[in-house]
Structures
1.
Amino acid sequence: MEFIKPNTLKELLEIISTITGEKYYFAGGTDINIQIKKDIIRNGKIIFINHIKELNGIKEDENYILIGSTTTFRQIIESKLLNDKLPFFQKSLNNFASPLIQSQATIGGNIANGSPTADVVPLLLVLDGKLELISNSMNRTINLKDFFTGYKKFILKPDEIIKSIFIPQNAENGFDTFYEKIGSRKALSIAKIAVAGLKKVVNNEINEIKIAVGSLNEYPRRLDLIEDYLLNKDLKDIDFKKIRIILKEEITPITDLRSDKDYRFEVCLNLIKKFLLKPDSG
Ligand SMILES: Cc1cc2nc3c(=O)[nH]c(=O)nc-3n(C[C@H](O)[C@H](O)[C@H](O)COP(=O)(O)OP(=O)(O)OC[C@H]3O[C@@H](n4cnc5c(N)ncnc54)[C@H](O)[C@@H]3O)c2cc1C
């Protein structure tokens, strides 16, 4: 195993464009350290990126809140800008891991580790988050929902990294918000099921609806079919038996050490129900 510490973003991008074999980025190291310890990662190059200033920090432009990929969850939780502009996003991450992990773990690492349980992903999905990807030869922006292609698989090219995350300025405005993560305990808990939702209800009718789930498929995703069923529906006409049938098509929960698939399915359904029946905060 070889460790590399580039001095600048330019140098980082040049180095990664020349590496053909296995490589990993060490941002906060909270996932990668465990993979090294467990011998899941044995070879390849480990490239430090958490000191590169262009990759860190939270700022805004006219249209977006921009979060650098190596921004830690502590920075997110303490950001005044996020408190003003995206308070739902910020508050939902208060229970991320523990204070120690929050000060190391980064938002880019949470996404690129590719775990179905990554806390930030369902939240970013309902907020219509985008990723800015950068390489030595190009820079492109994609919708986060198009990033994942399978379990720990994404569209990132071998010489690309996540530079930043964009969230539209008005992503939360006027929405009723919902986020619940079910784990084995309150602190330091990896999600067994997570549901994030935004809804706009006018005269009892659902005018806009976004629901995303984590830990229930190979990667967190929006529930497009359920959203289609709910759009423009009067709240009193929602048929939860129908939602149960659609949900069977949309999620494929697994049984593992933490929970079985039937439990995951029922809890997910109950959380969706709780979100839909949650009184309008406006
Ligand atoms: C005790 C403990 C508790 C935890 N609790 C939670 C929790 O509550 N919720 C949760 O979601 N996770 C949790 N985690 C998992 C982990 O902390 C998060 O996934 C974290 O956000 C990973 O970020 P990192 O910076 O440490 O990633 P790293 O370990 O540095 O990297 C992880 C992966 O992402 C890749 N990567 C990193 N940055 C980039 C980039 N900019 N571009 C492309 N690829 C990149 C690396 O190559 C690597 O494969 C926990 C972990 C531990 C050890």
Note: Residues 24-32, 34, 69, 96-97, 101, 104-106, 108-110, 112-113, 117-119, 161-162, 188, 190 surround flavin-adenine dinucleotide (CB under 6 Å).
2.
Amino acid sequence: MFHSRLSPETVHARFHAMKRDLTEPLAHRFTTQDGRDLVAVVATMKPDDRIVGVARYSRIDAHTAEVAFVVEDAYQGRGIGTELMRALRRVALRNGVQTFVAEILPDNVRMRALLHASGVCREQTRNGEVTVSLAVGDPEGSS
Ligand SMILES: CC(C)(COP(=O)(O)OP(=O)(O)OC[C@H]1O[C@@H](n2cnc3c(N)ncnc32)[C@H](O)[C@@H]1OP(=O)(O)O)[C@@H](O)C(=O)NCCC(=O)NCCS
């Protein structure tokens, strides 16, 4: 299972708390999508097409959605997160989502770099977490 191949560091960066094993309700949440308000895109690797990365958005209001990304450790830093962002933005634009927000830990340089490389971002720090807002349809982006 994809989740069980993630290192404790990656799990911590993604969930901000240790979730070594997925509970059933969480597993259900992460495998459910409706193609509009709750969307997931995955990256797979040949030859067995196993999942190595997942990016999701979950709509908060009419024009805003929260995003979360995770790439399997061995495949991080190879541009997969960037490709997942492109794919997720395409779907979001079609569905009227204008802003992505991501809750990240302050030391998460890679996710921060990914977001800032994707367009103009605004950052807010509260309670030890950074909230980054990104314009989904920003012309500098790759949509
Ligand atoms: C964050 C994450 C999804 C990014 O995916 P990825 O496939 O590693 O990202 P990419 O390879 O596309 O690189 C993204 C950016 O990070 C930069 N980067 C790569 N390695 C880096 C490093 N060691 N330090 C700093 N930046 C780095 C890349 O240069 C790229 O920026 P650029 O587009 O300006 O060149 C992935 O690292 C991950 O799963 N991390 C753990 C979970 C997590 O933090 N999730 C985010 C919480 S929502």
Note: The helical segments are 8-15, 24-30, 80-94, 109-117.
